[in-house]
Amino acid sequence: MRGGGSLLLIGDGSSEIAAAMHTMSDVCCKIVVARDGDEALDYLSGANELPRAVFLDFELCTEEGMKVLRRIRADERSGSVPVALFSSSAKREDVKEAYDLGANAYIPRPSDPTLFATTVHKTARYWLVFNTPPRSWKWKN
Predict the structure, then answer these.
(1) What percent of the chain has pLDDT over 70?
(2) Which own/partner pairs from 31-35 qualify as long-range (CB within 8 Å, at least 24 positions apart)?
(3) What was the pLDDT predicted at 33?
(4) In sequence order, what DSSP letters do the residues of the chain get, joined into one string?
(5) What are the angstrom distances between the C-alpha of 40 and each of 26, 90, 100, 111?
(6) Fold of 6-130
(7) pTM to 2 decimal places
(8) Which is nearest to 61 in space by CA: 24, 13, 1?
(9) What confidence score (pLDDT) does residue 71 get?
(10) How do residues 120-135 score in pLDDT, each as one tens digit?
């Protein structure tokens, strides 16, 4: 079952991202990869169509990831796009800060690359296939 629209995957772990991308061909039409926060923010500000979801991998340092989330939410155009955070941190203050900044999901990041790819795939299925976004969102199928 394939969903419409694109997915923005932000992270610096190239082998994990490659494995995750490989598992998502049945879920997503287009996957855009940004290797860091600046690249992701540049993409979002210039994209003709916003992604259906943003997956932010907190292997980016936590401070950088929170900065990216804060900037996504502060932008009028990208502010309502769902953002799921994958993090190896289980600190309560990190989880609380992420939700306070507007994260839609805070997902424990498995250390095993195969399990990480499976987790990303299942999360993508939810946001791209099963979730119904508001009609006001603009994206291409």
Answers:
(1) 77
(2) 31/6, 31/7, 32/6, 32/7, 32/8, 33/9, 34/8, 34/9, 34/10, 35/11
(3) 86
(4) ---SSEEEEE-S-HHHHHHHHHHTTTT-SEEEEESSHHHHHHHHHH-SS--SEEEEETTS-HHHHHHHHHHHHHSTTTTTS-EEEEES---HHHHHHHHHTT-SEEEE--SSHHHHHHHHHHHHHIIIII----TT-----
(5) 24, 24, 21, 23
(6) Rossmann fold (3.40.50)
(7) 0.85
(8) 13
(9) 94
(10) 888 988 888 888 877 6
What are 34's strand-pairing partners?
10
Residues in the chain: 141
Under the banding of pLDDT at 50, 70 and 90, the label for residue 17 is: low
User: For residues 42 and 139, what is the distance between their CA atoms, to the nearest angstrom?
Assistant: 18
pLDDT-derived band at 74 (thresholds 50, 70, 90) equals very high
Tokens of 63: 């401070």
